[in-house]
Amino acid sequence: xxxxxxxxxxxLQVGIDKIDSELKKLWAQSEGAMTRAxxxxxxxxxxxxxxxxxxxxxxxxxxxxxACRAIVIGADCKSKENRVDAWISxxxxxxxxxxxQICSEQxxxxxxxxxxxxxxxxxxxxxxxxxxxxxxxxSEFREPMDRQLWAWVDRVIYDSQTWKDFRAQMRLVESAQxxxxxxxxxxxxNWTRLDRIRFALAQFFDxxxxxxxxxxxxxxxxxxxxxxxxxxxxxxxxxAAQLNWRIENRKGGGLLQFINLSGYKIDIELRERAGEPIGxxxxxxxxxxxxxxRAKCGDLxxxxxxxxxxxxxxxxxxxxSNDPVSLMSEELMRGGPHHVxxxxxxxxxxxx
Amino acid sequence: xxxxxxxxxxxxxxxxxxxxxxxxxxIIVIFGATGDLTHRKLIPALYNLAADxxxxxxxxxxxxARREKNDEEFRAELEEATRKFSRQAVRDEIWKTFAxxxxxxxxxxxxxxxxxxxxxxxxxxxKERGTRGNRLFYFxxxxxxxxxxxKHLKAAGLNETCKGSWARVIVEKPFGTDLAxxxxxxxxxxxxxxxxxxxxxxxxxxxxxxxxxxxxRFANAIFAPLWNTHxxxxxxxxxxxxxxxxxxxxxxxxxxxxxxxxxxxLLQLLCLVAMEPPMDLSxxxxxxxxxxxxxxxxxxxxxxxxxxxxxxxxxxxxxxGKPVVGYREEPNVNPDSRTETFVALRLFIDDWRWADVxxxxxxxxxxxxxxxxxxxxxxxxxxxxxxxxxxDQNVLVIRIQPDEGISLRIHAKVPGTSFRVEPVKMDFHxxxxxxxxSPEAYERLLxxxxxxxxxxxxxxxxxxxxxxxxxxxxxxxxxxKDAPGLFFYPAGSWGPEEADDLLARDGHAWRRL
Lengths: 352, 513
What we know:
The complex is a heterodimer.
Chain A: E1 12-14, H1 19-29, E2 34-36, E3 41-46, H2 51-62, E4 69-76, E5 83-94, E6 101-112, H3 119-124, E7 133-137, H4 147-150, E8 155-158, H5 166-179, E9 185-188, H6 189-192, H7 195-202, H8 212-215, E10 217-224, H9 229-242, E11 246-251, E12 255-259, E13 265-272, E14 278-285, E15 288-294, E16 300-307, E17 315-318, H10 324-333, H11 339-348
Parallel strand pairs in A: 2-6, 3-4, 3-7, 4-6, 7-8, 8-9, 10-13
Antiparallel strand pairs in A: 1-5, 5-6, 10-14, 11-12, 12-13, 14-15, 15-16, 16-17
Helix pairs in contact in A: 2-10, 9-11
Chain B: E1 26-31, H1 36-51, E2 59-65, H2 71-85, H3 92-99, E3 102-106, H4 112-129, E4 135-139, H5 146-155, E5 167-171, H6 179-192, E6 198-201, H7 208-218, E7 232-240, H8 249-274, H9 283-295, H10 305-308, E8 309-315, E9 317-319, E10 322-324, E11 342-347, E12 359-364, E13 371-378, E14 395-401, E15 405-413, E16 421-429, H11 430-433, H12 441-451, E17 457-458, H13 460-478, E18 486-490, H14 497-504
Parallel strand pairs in B: 1-2, 1-4, 2-3, 4-5, 5-6, 7-12, 8-18
Antiparallel strand pairs in B: 6-17, 7-13, 8-11, 9-10, 11-12, 13-14, 14-15, 15-16
Helix pairs in contact in B: 1-2, 1-12, 5-6, 6-13, 8-9, 8-13, 9-13
């Protein structure tokens, strides 16, 4: 089975008009031993040189848990030569039952030159019908946004942590969303990065008896790694949106000041520390301190609640991982709109 | 399903988070803590919940049993078992934190002082760990101990709660051995715990595919109009296992396949397949509909049992090419035993939806493969065009275990110049389609009980109605005169031929699994 991507090769190079027939041949050769599976169309777009190979590796890992038809596109818009190359391959994994190979297809394209404007037609003609279409956009968004393309997208996935100008990029994404009549769900991997930490903090307040603590929060601290300030700000935005705080002012030295519904001020300190994107969250509600921090052993969070100075008995919770495969896997497991994300963004948009 | 039960005020920080709310802090007291169920299922399930971050931050697990041992010895035993039986590999750092919440309480089940000491110890744990007076009592002990445990829990005041806290009891099957004993057990439980505090566990309902039956039926509009006597020809439910009695001879000799599997697991699956749509997804709405369904089962007259129920017992044979002994030769089994290891039933549901649709249930030990599945056979298309010679029908198969999924058999034209039609299968596999592995049934059920969601637990009236249906069959089998026969089948076969005849009389055949 030479075209099966065992070593993350792009697979079999095929003529662009032969993709469907070559895919059929691929499955005909392997009938019985392998099962083709797909729950979603996942297109990945990047303009970074070498991205095709890198993304093929990522897709190989992602498809271990998320069967999809992957359309991986590497674009070189600056090239003067007009050229399209295509490959097909399959990523196969032994099923949990242990008897069958479960395979996801990958179609890869290298686009050079002005032909990058052909992106919609390339994507549209290779979607697996009736399945949702997720577009993972790894580059900066540029004007003009292709209306035809966005009208087909169900979820657009991006990582705002890599953006140089959050407001400009967000404006483009939101205008695309508006033109698509709100059909597109915006999925920010920078938000996904916070998922486990939000969960860890939220569980302190599941019992209604603890809700009075919200009104008494007066200060907090978010430790973030270099390059992840936007992640920390997004977290503060989430707290503000959900607890009805509004931004009061932005003090120097990484201090954000919010004001709650009763008019009390809340200081949130953003502190840069080497380590994980978000290293520790501390919220103080009068004498009680809520702490979520990264455990020493890596992929776990330590959560504890207690009075300051007391010896706390931390519990461990899953922390998730910051690698793109884990983030994408988390994102692909989710459904529904991300309106909480948009509320969080709106609270701190000017700070991002 | 009934998420709102414990959340009168929503936590604003929960909004949009995909994971379910963590239950309130609590102490889980397991009676029969040194037994097999605790080691194989309960502690591994609790460990997996802890590893996934689903347990409350303040939780304690107190094992209650007779044997002399201390906390450390108990933890060491449980660690060994969890490493062997856990769904996910045990991580040392998580186990270390989890193990701190495990404690051992030594007492005889009938020793009053043991319960008084337990009450004091639970209060102390509340103060030390912030478990807020919430108690979940899990009865993993032998059923003949239930009464004594319940009586003493009540005497020690452990069934009562102070304001804002809760006490719940999980009762493992068998929930009685007939209607009279089930009623008696219900009475005993009710003396100490109200119905809304009582969670009767049937682990089949914790399985992902069992829960998916409701989704399949009520979230897919294409099936709703077909799900009735006008379009369904018959229904088959099979629960087959290759295992024999495996050291459970003492229990099995008294129970048999009908009491062990049909009264609970198979009737629960049938309820999910046949019940009317519930008003909402609350525990009582769903259970109301299940009870109605069981009440609608046509009761057999004693004389009808032989024609509609086949009982069998395995004799020596082979499983996967390996010779195995017959049931009567198993250790601790009476050499003249008449306990059934196989049962097949033909039954009807006397309601508007299912009038005249035969339902066939089959359960057995030492069958050729282990599989549980539900098959819905649709009526044939009119025999006028392509299918004059076709005997195959459209069949919707819901595979409960293993290889959980759903398949639909349809007809397709064979490529060629003639109109040759053959059946083909459209297949959905959970393992292929969803990356996330399913939690074990006990994980889901323990979490539900901690959260106060009783949807997947059997209610008193469900259990009693099921026994009322089963009792007629048991009485007929136990009759001194004209009792229906016990038929023998070789281990590794699909049961006695009489079970095939049961369907053949209606022009049907068991589905080949």
